[in-house]
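Example 4.3 (complexes with small molecules)
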Amino acid sequence: MPHMFVPGPVDVDPDILNAQTKPMLPHRSPEFEASFHGAIEKAQRLFYTQGRVFLFASSGTGLQEAAVRNLSRENILSCVNGAFGSRWYDVAVSNGLQAEKLEVPWGQPVTPEQVAEKLRDEPYDIITLVHNETSTGLQNPVEEIAKAVRAADPDTLICIDAVSSLGGTKIETDAWGLDMVLTSSQKCLALPPGLALAAVSDRAMRRAEEVPHRGWYFDLLRMEKHRLKDSTPATPAISLINALDAQLDRILKEGLEERFARHSAMAKRIHSWALKRGFDLFAQDGFRSQTVTTLKNLLDLDFQDLNRFLLERGMRIANGYGVLKNETFRIAHMGETRMEDLDILLTAIDEFIEA
Ligand code: PLP
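Answer. The structure with pyridoxal-5'-phosphate bound is encoded below.
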């Protein structure tokens, strides 16, 4: 199997793939409820929260929808400095909700000052912000922005998309005062796709009580009622939850701090390699992602040729996302990828360039 340096789905360890082959248990059985409970407790450590974590049978986008449907009474401030921030805005609008964009040039961070200024003009029910923009390889300063939101308007809920960073970079849900942090399984958690996780604050749950049409499948209040019984309202993705449980053991055994350090060492390595090689990095210095790097294709490499060359050697990288196709390409260093893997990849790209 080619080693995937694409930002999801990433390679899954064979033991974790195997965990999915356990026989099915009815989800209303005490045995399943015990393993569900255990997985949630471990997931709380990943989110750095003492509070609730929900598991949904969906991908991450489902939880972008859950956030806006459950937590917005009137209006949303959507921070957009990349493709996934833009998607979250589209999700809000397509649900008939009133959303306003705070647009920042792609590759530059959203700043606490920009957010504070917006909140000074008008109150917003929620702010949506992507922590790690997978399109541009940029990490927004969530902790600082959350502080600015709290100071400007304590009623504004802070919703964070951590789809391509949770489990790869430290995100302290409780300490930073975040109200909803969402992620999906196929990126930094190195699981197959199909499972989404969210940490949700008490404030956010109180807000949901004031929102009349939250939908059914993603209704957080309904989810909570069942979570308290170690279950979900509809049939959970049992095989994926078994894999999550096994993978969380693996992640906690590696150590969260050690895992984050592994990712930032790889980020440092690839950033310096790229600049030395004559590429530029799309994201502004000081705000570069620890889990995915977006390179400006200044050497004018033919991306298809490059990926074909890499595939022959058992590896694969990703083209630029959407409008950034060919002008950029992306190398993910998330999940179980190690420095030795990255070294092999970079040596192969060197070889391609020199050929
Ligand atoms: N948000 C970010 C930052 C992403 O990178 C992605 C997927 O690449 C999504 C949201 C959408 O997630 P999913 O594909 O799990 O729905």
